[in-house]
From TrEMBL:
EC number: 1.2.1.27
SUPFAM superfamilies: ALDH-like
Domain called Aldehyde dehydrogenase: residue spans: 13-479
Organism this protein belongs to: Paragemmobacter amnigenus
InterPro entries: Ald_DH/histidinol_DH, Ald_DH_C, Ald_DH_CS_CYS, Ald_DH_N, Aldehyde_DH_dom, MeMal-semiAld_DH
UniProt keyword NAD present: yes
Top EC group: oxidoreductase
Protein name per the record: methylmalonate-semialdehyde dehydrogenase (CoA acylating)
Keywords: NAD, Oxidoreductase
Keyword Oxidoreductase among record annotations: yes
Length: 499
């Protein structure tokens, strides 16, 4: 059995805890490796080494740090196929989708090459007689990232890229479900010239996470995962005096106005609802057609498209639209929620419950499901399903559709499909959600903008990537300087404005 350990001080290191988690091949259900789960002592020792390594890295000029990121981008492109294969084999997503996962991380690394510019401070010449005032953005020291299974390349890069470019050391605690790609990223960082110890990859579960939360050395934590864990990490990390940003779960609504192009809307819903088996925090999981005629037309167009979807292992190449979900437990949870939808009165118009794939009977495949006539009180509407299940709630008016998106506890992304600019503009201005698509179903902002939800989808201030990430991973220091020509005689005891 393959054993996956940690990456500490530039080397692969075996775990010492004797505790392991299974890493599955989701297509066959077989255990393909065991990943070590770190102890608090392992985490603390790696963190102390990272703090020592950070001193020199933080003092390296930002242009040299940026060159490491530049070389890393080249190596990512060189190893794209290898990384995608490793990613798909543990996660289950198709190869083109795995490449998208890597690409969206790579783009943030490209943004990080601009670190010298992004780290520039402010300067005020002659703020008073002989007085100049300026600010610096300095690294926070050692930062940590705790990341989810569903984007094992992109999200670790969203975290470590800006943190490292700012001059911090970084402790990455990736998901124990698909740990291989984060370790490969660490190897590539070393090859790109990152000094050993500056990036540590520690695999683990709650014990390692709690050690991060309680570490006296770690100054900032970026988390992405489910909302209950986000809330926990935010609370405990903040109470320990750290800066913490946590991104949680989602229930993204797509509103379809009567004037929308129904073919485009149906295609968008199929891609955004079922791509990656629905295991995306920006997946559309609720369709909100406005008016019964719109709903009927939409459902009619959706059914044949959904029934045509090809579900299978990534190894089947272009013959597959989406792969298995990540674990047997995830599959069981999705099917339990589907049953609850039926029991609570929703109409299951595409029923994927009996989906079986010959030769892969033990794989974690879930057939596509489409519900109609879903209502607010149902579990399938309230909860994040994180599977290939699309719910349709019928709204009578635009205001009612808007209220669905506004009233839901999650607020990650949302979209509106319409040809009417006024309605689109009104929607973007009023909806209390962080990322909005206008005729775009998955509005993931590009690397030089920022990514983050509202309400129960995010805790803390500042978003991921873009300029916000450079603020999150640095502290401001402001210097007021005066040279003797500006100094007058005599002490002043008053707190006074500048002359
Ligand atoms: P998860 O919350 O189970 O795990 C995320 C991380 O937290 C992992 O590293 C895991 O080891 C750790 N963890 C799990 N349980 C813990 C506990 N009890 N104590 C301490 N640490 C714990 O999430 P997941 O299943 O890996 O990922 C799916 C979730 O992530 C979905 O809810 C999805 O919406 C969300 N997500 C959100 C975003 C976003 O940007 N908002 C992006 C991707 C995924």
């Amino acid at each position: 059995m393959k054993e996956i350990g940690h990456w500490i001080n530039g080397k692969h290191v075996k775990g010492t805890s004797g505790r392991f988690a299974d890493v599955f091949n989701p297509a066959t259900g077989e255990v393909q490796a065991k990943v070590a789960l770190a102890t608090k002592a392992e985490l603390d020792a790696a963190t102390a080494d990272a703090a020592a390594a950070q001193v020199k890295w933080g003092a390296t000029n930002p242009q040299r740090r940026a060159r490491v990121m530049m070389e890393f981008v080249r190596l990512l492109n060189r190893d794209m196929d290898k990384l995608a294969e490793a990613l798909s084999s543990e996660h289950g997503k198709t190869i083109p989708d795995a490449k998208g996962d890597i690409q969206r991380g790579l783009e943030v690394m490209e943004f990080c090459i601009g670190a010298p510019h992004l780290l520039k401070g402010e300067f005020t010449d002659s703020a008073g007689p002989g007085i100049d005032m300026y600010s610096m953005r300095q690294p926070i020291g050692v930062a940590a990232g705790i990341t989810p299974f569903n984007f094992p390349a992109m999200i670790p890069m969203w975290k470590m890229g800006p943190a490292l470019a700012c001059g911090n050391a970084f402790i990455l605690k990736p998901s124990e479900r698909d740990p291989s790609v984060p370790l490969m990223l660490a190897e590539l960082m070393q090859e790109a010239g990152l000094p050993d110890g500056v990036l540590q990859v520690i695999n683990g579960d709650k014990e390692a996470v709690d050690a991060i939360l309680d570490s006296p050395i770690i100054a900032g934590i970026g988390f992405v995962g489910s909302t209950p864990i986000a809330e926990y990490i935010y609370g405990r990390g903040c109470s320990n005096g750290k800066r913490v940003q946590c991104f949680g779960g989602a229930k993204n609504h797509m509103i379809i106005m009567p004037d929308a192009d129904m073919d485009q809307a149906a295609d968008a819903l199929v891609g955004a609802g079922y791509g990656a088996a629905g295991e995306r925090c920006m997946a559309i999981s609720v369709a909100v057609p406005v008016g019964d005629a719109t709903a009927d037309a939409l459902i009619e167009k959706l059914i044949p498209r959904i029934e045509k979807l090809k579900v299978g292992p990534y190894t089947a190449g272009n013959d597959v639209d989406y792969g298995p979900v990540v674990t047997a437990a995830a599959k069981a949870n999705i099917l339990k929620l589907v049953e609850s939808g039926v029991a609570q009165g929703a109409k299951l118009v595409v029923d994927g419950r009996n989906f079986k794939l010959q030769g892969y009977e033990d794989g974690f495949f879930v057939g596509p499901h489409l519900f109609d006539h879903v209502t607010r009180d149902m579990d399938i509407y309230r909860k994040e399903i994180f599977g290939p299940v699309l719910s349709t709630v019928r709204a009578k008016t635009y205001e009612e559709a808007l209220a669905y998106a506004m009233d839901h506890e999650y607020g990650n992304g949302t979209a509106i499909f319409t040809r009417d600019g006024d309605t689109a503009r009104d929607f973007a201005a009023r909806v209390n959600v962080g990322m909005i698509g206008i005729n775009v179903p998955i509005p993931v902002p590009l690397a030089y903008h920022t990514f983050g939800g509202w309400k129960k989808s995010a805790f803390g201030d500042l978003n991921q990537h873009g300029p916000d990430a450079f603020r999150f991973y640095t502290r401001t220091k402001t210097i007021t300087s005066r040279w003797p020509s500006g100094i007058k005689e005599g002490a002043s005891l008053n707190f006074k404005p500048m002359d």
